[in-house]
Amino acid sequence: MAGGRVGGWRGGWVAGQAHPPTRAFARRVGGWVVAGGCARWGAWWLVVGSANGVEAGGAAAPVLGGRRPVGEPRPGKRVAAPVRASAPGGAGGVVEHHAARDHARVLTRTPDRTHDHRQFRHDGPMRTIDWRGDRVVIIDQTRLPHDLVVAELRTVDELVAAITSLAVRGAPALGVAGALGVALAVLTAPDRVEEEAAKVRAARPTAVNLAWGVDRALARLPEGGAAVVAEAVAVLEDDARLNRALGERGADWLLDRVGGPVDALTHCNAGALACVEWGTALGVLRSLHLRGGLGHVYADETRPLLQGARITAWELAGLGVPHTVVVDSAGPSVIANGLVGAVVVGADRIAANGDVVNKVGTYPLALAAARAGIPFVVAAPESTVDLGTPDGRSVDIEVRDEDEVLGWRGERIAPAATRALNYAFDVTPADLVAAIVTEARVVEPASGSLS
Questions:
Q1: Which of 268, 349, 335, 270 is nearest to 304 (CA)?
Q2: Which range is the signal sequence, renumbered to this chain (predicted)?
């Protein structure tokens, strides 16, 4: 990998003289800086530091002050490939990013493990998932919030590993990943595209968007590889555009029904990091925030991998939205105590009858909202609506590795003889859903409207 030389220690990691390909890639992203190099083989990582860490062009500057934590490598220490990133808790699969076959290098890292994200805006040139001509580029969400890491995925197997480990996650982002997976297959395995596409489709069975994205790109295969790639890129660009429209529509509905400012509870992460840009449920709240119509947001931590505490809170902090993280079991009490006027969540699949499949822990929030008389709102693109699935009982609910529940950061916390049932999703019946908001319409299942 052609990368920058890591310089000395001056109150934090510093970037040294960058190799020309590194300088060519380094660029400022909405108050943050992406610093990278070029890799010819496999996936590779970039770690993004704060804007004062490395200026575009490779100029050296300290990132954040503080002592080097115990166990951190000294400046200049190389990380041998493959680089491995375990999902939080040391479980849930491992993503192997086979960097350039000689070395991968961390260019910038904050030593105190805390970031100020107020300058970060996830609507600039950097996206959750993107296409760079012959490879997929993702933000590795298993590394948030402490490290902002970008990985390049050049094969279908690398993409599947990223999906199963939750390095890329969220229904809309998975739809894009499905389409781009077929594009990768066309480029890397043109004689077995359908076989490779099947591997992508099977990576996560519950999220309908993944299969939808695969099918949309695969339908263009008779027209040739270029048509497949063009369709995959169209899926990518459509997601960015449609979710902004969804956010505006959801904000309109909430201001009309609840009034402003709206205090809201959300679950898991349905923000920009679950999409290409902007977000679904968090996109609605973001649109409210930009209008001055959002009050306080309560975010469930979302066990066992803490997408709420790690990712949603990180996004809210970057947007400057007042927020509080609560444990999942406290969510219904937040509602019962009158702290919020609405619950706004995303969805991984919406059945034809209006049943909603979303991250496990969603159903209790809908029950609490119904009891408290506040709206339970689901925000999701039309691609999440699965008219081929009659109801929630027909959905194959993913059960993930029990070690995600039984351990934390690679250490067992439950007795050796104890087993765990680790549902990834649950089903919220349609009669508990006040509104389903898409980019095209609002339907109100609880009132009998499913048109």
A1: 268
A2: none
20-236 and 247-447: same fold?
no
Among 348, 355, 386, 403, the one annotated catalytic: 348
Q: 216 labelled as ligand-binding?
A: no
In the block, residue with structure tokens 């990091």 = 273
Question: Residue range 287-313: average pLDDT?
Answer: 96
Distances from the Cα of 199 to the Cα of 95, 157, 205, 251, 448, angstroms: 16, 8, 11, 37, 38
Please give the Cα distance from 119 to 320 (Å, whole number).
Answer: 9
Q: Strand ranges (DSSP E) for 120-244?
A: 129-131, 136-139, 148-153
Q: State yes or no: 169 annotated in a binding site.
A: yes
Range among 12-21, 64-73, 368-377 rated most confident = 368-377
Q: Which residues of 314-332 are buried (b: 16+ CB within 10 A; e: fewer)?
A: bbbbbbebebebbebeebb
What pLDDT digit, counting tens, does each position of 97-139 carry? 333 222 222 223 333 333 333 333 444 457 999 999 999 999 9
Question: Token pair for residue 174?
Answer: 């998975």
Tell me the backbone φ, ψ of residue 33, rounded to 5 degrees.
Answer: -125, 130
**Pairing status of strand 425-428 against strand 356-359:** antiparallel
249 in a known ligand binding site = no
Q: What is the pTM of this model?
A: 0.73
CA distances from residue 354 to 52, 129, 224, 302, 428 in whole angstroms, order as listed: 48, 29, 37, 23, 9
**What are the boundaries of each domain within the chain?**
20-236, 247-447
147 to each of 46, 113, 144, 419, how far by Cα in Å? 10, 8, 5, 32
CA distance 219 to 231: 9
pLDDT classification of 13: cutoffs 50, 70, 90: very low
27 is in an annotated binding site: no
What kind of fold does domain 20-236 have according to CATH? Four Helix Bundle (Hemerythrin (Met), subunit A) (1.20.120)
**Residue 134 among the catalytic residues:** no
Strands 83-86 and 94-97, by their bridges, are antiparallel
Side-chain half-sphere of 81: how many Cα atoms within 13 Å?
16
Please, which residues have CB within 8 angstroms of residue 320's CB and are 6 or more apart in sequence?
A: 118, 289
Average pLDDT over residues 15-19: 32
Residues in contact with 331: Cβ distance below 8 Å, sequence separation at least 6, in sequence order: 265, 267, 298, 300, 361, 364, 365, 368
CATH 3.40.50.620: does it fit domain 247-447? Answer: no
DSSP type of residue 73? P
